[in-house]
Every structure is written in C-alpha cells, then in structure tokens.
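Forwarding these from the shared drive since the link keeps breaking.
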Amino acid sequence: MPCARCCTSRTSIGCSGTTPRRTRRSMNTDQPGFHIDGPAGLAMVDRALDQLDLLWARSPEVSAEDRTLFTLAVSEVATNVVQHNGTAPVTMTVDVRVAGDVLCADITDSAPPASIEWRDVAMPDADSESGRGLALARAALDEFSHTFDEHGNTWTLRRHLTLAS
C-alpha cells in the first residue's frame, strides 16, 4: 500500500505479485527529496546514489541505519533495472522523498513488464554470485511493490524511519 504522505496514486501490492500500474501524481515539492531521469545505465545508478548522499546531508533526522538500508534497496532495484532491461534503449526515473517519518522512492522504467514471482524471491545460496537484489531490497523495506503498464514498470519502495532511542 502506498505511503499516504507520498505522491503515488496507484494500485499497489505487497510482495505477492504484479498488477498494472496507475497514473502517478506529481511529487510534493515541499518534502526533501530529488527527481532524476535518463538512460537506464550504471551512470544513472551512480547519479541516484550521489543524490541520496546529498539528501542525507540535508536530512539529519534520518538515522544511519535507515540511510544505509534505504540506499541499499534503491541501489539494488535500480541496478536490477539496468541489468535486466533487455537490448532496447530504456529510460529510468528515480523519485525519492523524505515524507514525514517515511522514506519513499518510486523507480520507473520504460522496459517491458518485468515478470516476477514474489514467492520465489529469496536469498540465494552463499556461493551464488548474483540473485540477491530483490531479496535484499525486500528485507530492507517496510513496503515494496512492482506495478506495470504499457509504458513500463514502477517499483515502489517505502521504509518507515526508526524511532530514536
């Protein structure tokens, strides 16, 4: 279920399947965050990570643990988009916001719909060299969903901030 404080208005699912995505509303510009878009490549992943570093510098209320785990999730999902986008040129958009006590990211791409069997998303054997991305992201997030339509995929990531002790 999308974060009420964030900007999405779409059908969302947990980690149980995929459904067609709905039209997104504009991001609330009063919330700290960023929007970047461009070709889906490793340079785009690096841009997203650089922007997250800048966001964390402006968001002292976000704990080191929340920063680390949310950054890991964004990195893994964005990298999956890059690695699994096929041969056609694909664009990617990354929208991130600190919305009250929730970290929100929406990653969209123009790739064909990703086919994901959520029940099969799990950590691979220790000797495996890949296959951890979605499992790591799911473990780091409170809400994680994938939707799609004829224009591409949307990955919705939410992490509730840890309360200070």
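-- next protein --
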Amino acid sequence: MKLVYFLLVYFLSNTIIAQINKVEIIISSTNLSEDVSVVSTKNDEVLFLVYEIESEEYQSPLINEYFVLDSSRMEISIEANLDKNRRYEYYLLEMDSHRDYLQLDPIIRIHHKAIKECFVKGDYLGIEKYLEDDDILDINELTMPINKSINSIYKIDRYSYQITMNKEL
C-alpha cells in the first residue's frame, strides 16, 4: 500500500510541476541559402530538430521536422508540446546531401558535442566529417518565447531565417 501511495504522490507531483504547453513555432526565410549560384536548387530543404537538454546525451528529438522553402513558400508553422521548465536546443540544417533526413538525427545525437564545437568555431570541414554536404544554419537554445534572427553566409550563399515562438495554442 505504501508503494501505491508513493507512486501516486510521485506521479501527481511530476504532473503538477510539468508545465507542458502546446506552442506554435514559426520558421521563415527572407533569403534562402540556395538561391545565388546558377547551380543552386532555388529552394532550401530544411531540417529542424529540437532536443531536450537533460543530460550529456541527447534522447530522440521532440521535434524532427523536414520541409522545403522556396519563393512560393517562405514560412512553415510547427506545433509542439513543450514544458516551460525544461531546456531545449535546436538544430536548423539545410540539406544538400542525398541521404534521407531521418539519418541525421542519430548522427547528431552521437556527435552533438563535436558538431556544436565545429559550428561555433566555423570549422566547416569538421562539420562535413559528420554531416557531409548538409549545412548547419544554426544551433541554439530554444527558449520560450523566442524571436531569433539568423543571418549569415555559408560558402557563397547568404541566408536569412527567423524562428519565432511567442504564443501558446
């Protein structure tokens, strides 16, 4: 009986502490990374991954969203259930390789420290060792709310993205 009581109290305390909210994350671009050179595809095949930061190791992503942005569609909306008491980190990637986007999550989970270190240093050859031709547009903490502008140049392509999340659904 004590075990049942303990489990009930434990469950209720975790339920009360957790503040899970359904949120809308909007990713938009005003300048795609694949729109400059004549060999560019004129669209960005984008992967947005969100991991909970709870230990040294990443678990499966809470968000694993693949989408294509082009001149006719420059914005995507993603709904997710996130806990305000937890910390999250996102990876925004532009996919240039021919592999399936589902293959990237396990690589990132295993090598996230090295990949992030290479990204911070601007070590594109180091990133290629793990992600081949896929480009990291940004790695950062996903806070609630967020209004993050991402503007940079990768190789010869300039890009501009915005990540916003400021309302609960």
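Residues 145 and 166 are 5 Å apart (CA to CA). The chain is about 25% helix and 45% strand.

- D.
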